[in-house]
């Protein structure tokens, strides 16, 4: 299963089902919403790696929500691809001016959709390849489930792999224990919050062997953050 999650916001059921099917075929995790209100609710508990957003939505349109998200510090760096039947150049320019990272016009092929998603994920600066996650000299191979630091392969458990993968794809942001449980273990699994602390300590011990333990930071009263910047 891919470590990357796509939030699909589309009110037409047939189109939404098609998008979900295509994304799942390419091993993306998928969240679904029929409108902006539902999508906003999902964002509060699940931070995706990219939003695939229909332009013509009821109540609040895709372009308006793009504007709101890009003006919100919490979501400013969240990649957005607008999906629309509007093919005029002026519409494309408007979407990009509002902060959308790309724009795809209906109808489109599954291959074009996946290619655009890959391109936007690469441009995010965190993902160099969909089979590889890289943060400075820490590299995760998502197909072979291997981790290397400074070109040296290291051993990690499946849980530590998922936890490190999440941190590397969401650097500089603080996550509390509940959010980490939801994102790494899944909301359907009951695990005590202190389990997060245990795995954080294990992962930090592994990073310490390479002088990287300070990157996995405890933000007192809030949670944890992965950052190369000094913890203040």
Structural class: alpha/beta
Instruction: Tell me the CATH topology of the largest domain.
Output: Rossmann fold
Characterize the quaternary organization of these chains: single chain
The CATH homologous superfamily name of the largest domain equals Response regulator
Q: Please give the order of strands in the largest beta sheet.
A: 2-1-3-4-5
Helix content: 25-40%
Let me know the largest β-sheet: 5 strands, parallel
Q: Please identify the top-level CATH class of the largest domain.
A: Alpha Beta
Architecture of the largest domain in CATH? Answer: 3-Layer(aba) Sandwich
Characterize the structure shown.
The chain is an alpha/beta fold and 232 residues long. The chain has two domains: 5-127, Response regulator (Rossmann fold, 3-Layer(aba) Sandwich), CATH 3.40.50.2300; 131-226, Winged helix-like DNA-binding domain superfamily/Winged helix DNA-binding domain (Arc Repressor Mutant, subunit A), CATH 1.10.10. Helix content is 38%, strand content 22%. It is built from eight helices and twelve strands. The protein has helices at 13-25, 36-43, 62-70, 89-97, 110-123, 158-169, 177-185, 194-208; strands at 5-9, 29-33, 50-54, 80-84, 102-105, 127-129, 132-135, 138-141, 146-149, 152-154, 216-219, 223-226. The strands form three sheets. It has a five-stranded parallel β-sheet with strand order 2-1-3-4-5, with helices on both faces. Strands 6-7-8-9-10 form a five-stranded antiparallel β-sheet. A two-stranded antiparallel sheet has the order 11-12. Helix 3 (62-70) links the parallel strand 3 (50-54) and strand 4 (80-84). Helix 6 (158-169) packs across helix 7 (177-185) and helix 6 crosses helix 8. The longest helix is centred in the C-terminal third of the chain and has 15 residues, at 194-208. The chain is elongated.
